[in-house]
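Minutes, project check-in

Agenda point 3 was the complex the collaborators sent over. CS summarized: two entities, 852 residues total, and the question is how they sit relative to each other. Sequences were read into the notes so everyone works from the same version.
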Amino acid sequence: MTSRRLLFLLPVGLLAAAGAGFYAMLAGMQRGSFNPRGVPSALIGRPAPSFSLPPLEGSGKLGFALEDLHEAARQGPVLVNFFASWCVPCLVEHPNLMRLAAEGVPVFGINYRAGGRDDPGAVAWLRRHGDPYRRIGVDLGGRVAIDFGTYGVPETFLVDREGIIRWRMAGPITDTVLAEDLRPLLRRYR
Amino acid sequence: MVPELGHYALVLALLLACVQAGVTLVGARAGEARGALLMAAGPSTAIAQAGFVALAFGCLMWSYAVSDFSVANVAQNSHSLKPMLYKLTGAWGNHEGSMVLWVLILALCGALVALFGGNLPATLRARVLGVLALVSVGFLLFILLTSNPFMRLWPIPEDGRDLNPLLQDPGLAFHPPFLYLGYVGTAVAFAFACAALLEGRVDAAWGRWVRPWTLFAWSALTVGIGLGSWWAYYELGWGGFWFWDPVENASLMPWFLATALLHSAIVVEKREALKVWTILLAILAFSLSLLGTFLVRSGILNSVHAFANDPDRGVFILALLFVTVGGSLALFAWRAPALAPQGVFAPVSREGGLILNNLLLATLCAVVLVGTLYPLFADLVWGAKITVGPPFFNAATFPLFFALLVAMGVGPLLPWKRADLWAALSRLKLAAAVVAALVVVYLAAVDRTLLPLLGFACALWLLLGAVTDFADRVRLGSAPLAESWRRARGLPRGVVGGILAHAAVAITVAGIAGKGLAPERITLLQPGETTTLAGYVVRFDGTRPLAGPNWTGVEGRLVVLRGDRELAVLAPQRRHYPVARMGTTEAAIRTSGLADLYAVIGETTENGATVVRLHYNPLAPWIWAGTVLMGLGGLISLSDRRLRVGVPSRRRAAAPAAVAAE
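CS then shared the predicted structure for the full assembly.
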């Protein structure tokens, strides 16, 4: 009987815990120590998660795994870029990715296909706008996107020589982002 | 003068709510005989309270209608050039005004309980009115202390700051009232739950009184969520309809629980079982409605939903949430163990199916709750910044949805008490054969992606399940048509509503599955260039400038061709609202009822090419047609004779076997 009583007290207990948590959040927001809106990646300063992706058929590029990323990173920082042909902001950052690729920065593409959403236009899209990627992996089912904690597409991660994620951009790499954030970082981790 | 009148009316409403709570709760405690006089004062105070809140809301609408910019709330959210419709709907397009609307709906519900609750036992009605009054007191205090919409402004500004242009839209103008109807409807179910705990009695009659309110709340919530998603589809211009945005989730969670409550109340009514769980569901459904309000208004969650966020307000709502939910849950912990579990039931039976429904819906709600709150708590406790987005929600909820849909097809065919699963499944042989045929044809001819196929198969299964249910009930085929017609007309409306709502879910699921197949094309087009999509040729004829009452913009012209024939002209717009300093995209949608052709234009580059995005969304309109039908099913069920009149007295309900014969 007592354990039945305890079971009935469980909701109140959960509420008390949640209430305390929410209060701490509000208090932190007022002090400025808690900001629920900042969205830097949890992975910054941490090794890139392990994965292995099949190639994008028809693109003529190999798929890749974390080991391939490490291999390429020995010569200098690499970028991992989540993209999809249906994403408008991807088109915005595309010229900048092409520029970086032409300068020799290795850009690894991950074709984002979460939620059963296929991307049959990916190859045609790359043919039309140019292909900046050294290798292209297809993230069927979006598991790698979850492991990287992505918001959506486009999203770009900078991985340094040790295989540590140093920077994350949720959204397109615009000219400003390229000039003010990415270029200095590329120099720093060279 | 008018704003002061409104302010004063709110204060009077607060005092009346205090009186209402006092007389009803004390009267009910004194007992049916000794407290009769006190309890008799309850209904009239409830009606008067509703009258004063309505007066206050009318004053606020008036201030908006005449653009009285001396009222701070109007100055911040309106503009003299705005069309009248959006001036009026602007009254609830902001934090303060929407809270008044919330309280107005709550007070109106209280007045309805007072007016039509004559056949409730006196103490139960008094307690329901008392709990509703307590909720009113909390929210009126909140409005008067932290969010007064009638605050004056000095000096009076020349013009207002305009409403967020995304909200200046017919779909969104009526989205909040429906959602609030839903949220507040759960408040009535909550009041019934608390009253039952205070009474210490839950029986079949109680289940029957809770059901109409839950149905009403559920229908309104369904339509409200549908309107919101429809708005997101055509106004946000991303081509999607559901983004697992925290605020969307905040409205979806009460919906899951209201759906569960709707079904578990049937078990209480028919079998007098599942009482404790139903009470808990009623409390939690309302708690999650409040949680949604708290998360949005406090600024803890950020989203497209534009409210002035303020942590101070957050503390007040948190306290309100804590007192309301904590009080009711403490009451639950104290009184619910006394509600002895009754009724034995077999796992395979109608009630067993309803329990499965409840388990799945509660799990879905828990998944969404965890996905929404986990990042916040992870940040607070470990300082880890993580985001949980659509990939998580899709991966975690789809299997549950599919299980729910498959079970939904079979459940209504199971009889009460003890069922034979094979007998029920054999009635669905034809349905299963048709679904199997669909799968084969689909794989061979249409597409091989798994999720849309599963969605279509489940939708068809569910639809055929509903049709089988209906056909069996009217003996379609096995009896003469005239006999079937007579039976169809004689079906209880509750049954018809249920069948319709289940079929409507099938329609919505088919629409969502169709969206999974939708091809899209994004290109840069020079005027005169063409592109193709799903067998259509689309010619871009360039853009032209355009101006509205409080915005300027450009409109693109896209001609849809099949062969040489012009099928349609799409005119998507991009608008800029100078006062609010915001832009919006207005998608152009051409629908055939079976598919949408959806176009959005983006920026024009220096060399004259414009970014054009085209979607071909098969079955997309079905998503919202389904939600409207679901709401309609709820309303039909609500008009059931059983709920309207002849609400049984407790004595009659003591013999549930007499009513269980369906």
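Noted in discussion: Chain B touches chain A through 53 residues (CB under 8 Å).
Follow-up: revisit at the next meeting once the mutant set is ready.
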